[in-house]
Give the backbone structure.
Amino acid sequence: MTQRLTPGRLLPAALGAALLACGLGAQAAEAGATWKLSGFGTLGAAHSSYRNADYIASSLKRDGPGYSRSWSADVDSRLGVQVDVARGRWSGVVQVVSEQRLDGSYLPQVEWANVKYQVTPDFALRAGRIALPVFLAADYRKVGYTVPWVRTPVEVYGGQPLSGSDGVDATLRWGRGALRHTTQAFYGHTDLDLRNGLRVQAAAIAGLSHSIEQGAFSGRVSAITGSLTTDIGKELFTALRAFGPRGQALADRYAIVDKRLVLVSAGASYDPGAWFLTTEAGRSRNDSLLGEVSAFYIGAGMRFGAFTPYVGYARARAESPIMDPGLPLAGLPPRLAATAGMLNAGLNAYLMTIANQSTLSAGLRWDFAPDFALKAQVERVRPQDGSRGSFTNLQPGWRSGQTAHVTSVALDFVF
């Protein structure tokens, strides 16, 4: 199977996993097996006008531009290398990606590592580490060259706690004429090292994804569920439990211990070549600190030779409270009241991470050479209603509702 890479085009979701395996990089045949080496990367720099916090594109990054520094290369810069091997009906892939993590390091991480058996031309089974097929660009969201903008919209993609699992999946392609369907079912688990002494574990990850393609149109709907557990906030919840039934209830309500996550999403893209229009929406629910969030974005652009100007709008809205009154302070002795007040502040600091933010963006992509693209993008980012949105390292002057202007440049390449 061969897939030709179209610069800046949001590839049909069902073909995303095959992107790097087909047509990129060097290859050599050896003893009946075909090996392919390919890769991708982004060299980026971002600036934030807001100096009381750092702008980040993912909750798994340590810092960004704003408070820590005026410009930062850590928001978008990354390097990925992939090796594919195929022999007969069997094939395998390993993909390793280096980008900033929560400890500030660029320690490489294995994103994909799976083996596939092609049972029939239209039916395949895989086992190993697999990208979860959630949202249109889930399979290739880290390959900046394949998306028109500098980064996938953070309101939709930035807050997802699960992006892959260790398990199995089955994919069936079917259809008639120009209309093609791809249905994928998956099951697995994950154990993610956050690189700050904490881990996020998800058990019984299960879901279903269905994609359709016809001409310039592609779309995907998906649903996923899993049980999340992490030690994030463990000390806070231990302290809350010491305050009797109310503290116990708060800890049970917000601790991320064996809490069911449900995520549903739908997206569509129309790309006849001269222009494109893409939109996605999703909703996630977890009865813990993660809360319930709905999000969507819409983006469009026109292609004029090597230049592609584009605009976009994204919105995330908290569907669960961002603040909680916490422990009642009335009637407590002064020392206990002070402690309870600090615990309430700590609880609400966690709840502020529930996304409630909008971003208006505009940019220009320049495909100045084969396999290279240079992008410039400006954004108006506004967290609101108590949420800190895509910001971290909050300083005393930080206020939800204030606007940050983020300017980004990125050089994307594949090899």
Remarks:
- The first helix runs from residue 13 to 16.
- The CA atoms of residues 82 and 95 lie 4 Å apart.
- DSSP finds five helices and 20 strands in the chain.
